[in-house]
Design goal:
alpha/beta, two-stranded parallel ribbon, 11 helices, about 10% strand, globular
Amino acid sequence: MTSDADVALRVRALESLLLEKGLVEAPAIDEIIDLFENRLGPQNGAKVIARAWTDPEFKARLLANATDAIVEMGYEAVQGEDMVVVENTPRIHNLVVCTLCSCFPWATLGLPPVWYKSAPYRARAASDPRGVLAEFGTAIADDAEVRVWDSNAELRYMVLPERPAGSEGMSEEDLLALVTRDSMIGVSHAVTP
């Protein structure tokens, strides 16, 4: 098993070699590190969701044109893809998958989880979404419709989870803790306060 110290040493050695050979420049490495550490990730998506839960006008814009609404908050797609946000309700539960590979909205959700990229998830989310949700421990009413959205290179999906009961008086900042990456993929509900 490789330790964190071993990985860090290998990364430093690789970085030094790339710099020494002139294959990359230090500012480019710094930019990439900043991108993955500070500008991409599920914290961005959580801010989008919390805003939608507290601002009906923003929510309407998000559901009508997610790409523009998300850019309005300062998050642009890394690979130029468009975004669609689908809303969970008591009658409809949405689930996101990429059946071909692992297309994922990095700007709002960060790097895809390992299970999202796995062949079993990709196949079963499309053919047995209720079974997949059950494996994640997510209960869906028998009479609720489950919709599966297939992300691709040009179009990425994100779920607007139902706002949890008991969160009505919470601030936008406090709501962030209730939004998880998995709830924005649709395999779980938002956290109940």
